[in-house]
């Protein structure tokens, strides 16, 4: 195995907390949370956000129109949702050290334009990265090969000397097919340990 020189991070549940269902259970109770989670927020339009083919405003309007009886809950989530995206501090704190060690750092993540803009302007850790590949900027989402190829072709990342980190199995599978080393991060708290095992940290 050649030495690892680049590390590629997913955002949600790797570097950034993203647990809207758990939040809704806390605030609205389980019954309402289930309706919101399974019917209202799981519509196919949500995928179009990550593809950059629909805006956050458009999708909230569609939800409010389709489920007027849930309007107060939908309005609450509309106002609150971007605040639920917060850094996973213990993992974000590893970034400066990885940079100091000389690794090239990248983000490869499915994110709507508005949500990404919100966290990008709010949190400073993005300045450590050498490249940011965000699905809505490229009209392709993981696990499609095409978005990984943006990283390879536009950023010159070589899969065989790179580690790709993601919480979702299907995203890991595509990365493996393309020849990346991978870390399937099922628990955010395991990141440091997994990097140490691979001798990266
Ligand atoms: Mg994720």
Structure description:
Helix content is 49%, strand content 13%. It has helices spanning 20-28, 30-40, 45-50, 56-66, 71-80, 89-92, 95-100, 113-122, 135-138, 145-155, 169-177, 191-197; strands at 6-9, 16-17, 86-87, 104-109, 131-134, 162-166, 181-184. α1 (20-28) crosses α2. The protein is built from twelve helices and seven strands. A five-stranded parallel β-sheet has the order 5-4-1-6-7. It has a two-stranded antiparallel sheet with strand order 2-3. The chain is an alpha/beta fold. The mean pLDDT is 95. The structure holds magnesium ion. The site of magnesium ion has 7 residues, from loops.
Q: What is the count of β-strands? A: 7
- In the sheet with the most strands, the strands line up as 5-4-1-6-7
**CA radius of gyration:** 18 Å
Order of helices and strands: EEHHHHHEHHEHEHHEHEH
Question: Averaging pLDDT over every residue, what do you get?
Answer: 95
Q: What summary fits the major beta sheet?
A: 5 strands, parallel
What fraction, in percent, of the residue positions are helical? Answer: 40-55%
| CATH homologous superfamily (4th level) name of the largest domain | HAD superfamily/HAD-like
Q: According to CATH, what is the class of the largest domain?
A: Alpha Beta
- Name given to the CATH architecture of the largest domain: 3-Layer(aba) Sandwich
Q: Approximately how much beta-strand content do the residues carry?
A: 5-15%
Structural class determined from secondary elements: alpha/beta
């Amino acid at each position: 195995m050649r030495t690892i020189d680049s590390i590629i991070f997913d955002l949600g549940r790797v570097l950034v907390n993203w647990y809207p269902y758990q939040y809704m259970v806390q605030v609205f109770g389980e019954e309402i949370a289930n309706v919101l989670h399974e019917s209202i927020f799981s519509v196919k339009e949500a995928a179009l956000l990550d593809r950059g083919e629909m805006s956050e405003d458009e999708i909230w309007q569609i939800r409010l129109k389709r489920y007027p009886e849930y309007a107060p809950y939908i309005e609450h989530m509309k106002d609150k949702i971007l605040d639920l995206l917060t850094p996973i501090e213990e993992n974000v704190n590893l970034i400066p050290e990885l940079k100091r060690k000389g690794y090239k750092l990248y983000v490869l993540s499915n994110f709507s334009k508005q949500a990404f803009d919100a966290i990008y302007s709010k949190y400073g850790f993005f300045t450590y990265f050498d490249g940011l590949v965000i699905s809505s900027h490229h009209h392709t989402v993981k696990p499609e090969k095409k978005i990984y190829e943006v990283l390879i072709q536009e950023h010159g990342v070589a899969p065989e000397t790179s580690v790709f980190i993601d919480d979702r199995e299907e995203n890991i599978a595509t990365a493996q097919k393309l020849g990346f080393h991978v870390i399937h991060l099922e628990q955010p708290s395991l990141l440091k340990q997994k990097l140490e095992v691979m001798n990266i940290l």
